[in-house]
Amino acid sequence: MTSRIEEAINVLKMNDRGDYTVPTNRLYPYQWNWDSGFTALGLWHLDKNRAWLELASLLNAQWKDGMVPHIVFRQNDPDYFPGPGVWQTKTSPSTSGHSQPPVLASIVWEMVQMGGLDDSNKAREIFPDLLSYHRWFCEARDPKKSGVIGIIHPWESGRDNCPDWDIGLAGVDVPNNIGEYIRRDTVHVDSDQRPTGYQYDRFLTIVNFGRKVGWNHEIIYNDGPFLMADPGVQFIFLRATKDLLEMARYLGQDSTLHEIEDWVERFEAGSEWLWNEKVGGYCARDLRTGKFSNGLTNASMLSFYAGVGSVEQQNKSIDNCRRIMKACKFAMPSWDPQHPGFESHRYWRGPVWAIMNYMIARGLSDAEFEDLAFRVTSDTKSLIEENGMAEYFDPLAGKGLGGMNFSWTAAIYLDLCRDSLTRDSGGIVKRAIAHGVN
Fold first, then answer.
1. Residue 196, class by beta-carbon neighbours within 10 Å (0-12 exposed, 13-18 middle, 19+ buried)?
2. Distance from C-alpha of 338 to C-alpha of 327, rounded to nearest angstrom
3. Is-catalytic flag, 19?
4. Which of 388, 390, 362 is nearest to 376 (CA)?
5. Which residue in the list 7, 185, 336, 391 is annotated as catalytic?
6. For residue 247, what is the enclosing H or E element?
7. How far apart are CA 272 and CA 310, in angstroms?
8. Bridge partners of 32?
9. 419 is catalytic
10. What's the order of all strands across the beta sheet hosting 150-151?
């Protein structure tokens, strides 16, 4: 364990760019939204000031309307496509044109609960930014106040090529003049672990639409080529809103309580629209056609993290959770392994992700399914200890996949080892810093 802790520390040091952290060198050379959130959680156990700087750096790129973009382009790196020249958001710093799963409030609240007065003061400084971010989601991604968040691009879900999006992507018409482009991801990672060319053509078609309308989110929501409800974003947002409410009470932000309470009530009620009785779980759904995705994902299991569902719905979700875990050596796969669309190696179509497991285990523990929470946490640690800081892992064989030396995997591992770090009284951390990057 000690050697893996030192490795995790060195990975975060290796990917540190001063005031922000890249997910991994070359494959992802910029700052990503939810990556920075989870990375800050890991950094907090090493250097609290650096953890808060990570979040401040990300929020420095927040749009005037409150959106926190999914990528912040600190420079133009030819190793990544599509870069700032494709997005053309005309922001400073340059960013992408949509957001990502809004984990930030939950991460900040966790850091406040673990910390002291200084952490509370840092949270108080950025609380208005977090509130503005949540307000943006409520207005731009649920303008009809239905309580259901709509994502306008699969990338906004953070689960880029999940089979959830197949029904939405099928309706995206790729123009003949989309032009030739050179992907960079398949230069760094085997193509059988990445999204397909069919998917990438549609990803870029959606980006091109956003660019043509000047990233006007009202037009994109109403007329864009893709609009789907995502259980991942829905449940992460709902949990983060509940955490924002607790933080507001703790920090004495009384004037915001009524607004945040209304959001919680609205999105708890709206989550019912994602319940798919045919599969016994929460599924993605096309907001324009009402058509359901027909499979369960690791995002489906975030219903416990958000605290939604009747007793009957929770029991059905747990039955599926146990079935899926039984079918895998390692939990929790990103797609049901007994579904014909399952691919154990391909990005979000099967592999295990440490960040998703972190949230799933939290939710299962909150709902008092401690045996399942223990299984998810134990599997996460085993995968990392046996295979290192990989981006994601094969749920059947355990092999590390995607980018290596990955920041959020290292960060989650450090958080899972928080008790060891505390008992160690800084010894492991000091050794790792003294020895430098391996």
1. middle
2. 7
3. no
4. 362
5. 391
6. helix 231-251
7. 10
8. 71
9. no
10. 150-151, 228-229, 285-286
Which 3 state secondary structure label does DSSP give 115? coil
Global model pTM greater than 0.85: yes
- What's the rounded Cα separation, in Å, for the pair 17 and 13? 9
**H helices, E strands: number in the chain:** 19, 10
User: Residues 35, 160, 166, 394: which is the catalytic one?
Assistant: 160
Q: Can you say whether residue 388 is alpha, beta or left, with left for phi > 0 and alpha for psi between -120 and 50 degrees?
A: left
- Determine the length of the chain: 438
Q: For residue 71, what is the enclosing H or E element? A: strand 71-73
**pLDDT, one tens digit for every residue, the chain (438 residues):** 678 999 999 999 999 999 999 999 888 999 999 999 999 999 999 999 999 999 999 999 999 999 999 999 998 888 888 999 999 999 999 999 999 999 999 999 999 999 999 999 999 999 999 999 999 999 999 999 999 999 999 999 999 999 999 999 999 999 987 777 776 776 777 878 788 999 999 999 999 999 999 999 999 999 999 999 999 999 999 999 999 999 999 999 999 999 999 999 999 999 999 999 999 999 999 999 999 999 999 999 999 999 999 999 999 999 999 999 999 999 999 999 999 999 999 999 999 999 999 999 999 999 999 999 999 999 999 999 999 999 999 999 999 999 999 999 999 999 999 988 877 655 666 665 555 443
Q: Mind spelling out the 3-state secondary structure of 326-350?
A: HCCCCCCECCCCCCCCCCCCCCCCC
Return the bridge partners of 228, or none.
151, 286
Give the distance, in angstroms, between the CA of residue 412 and the centroid of all CA atoms in the same chain.
13
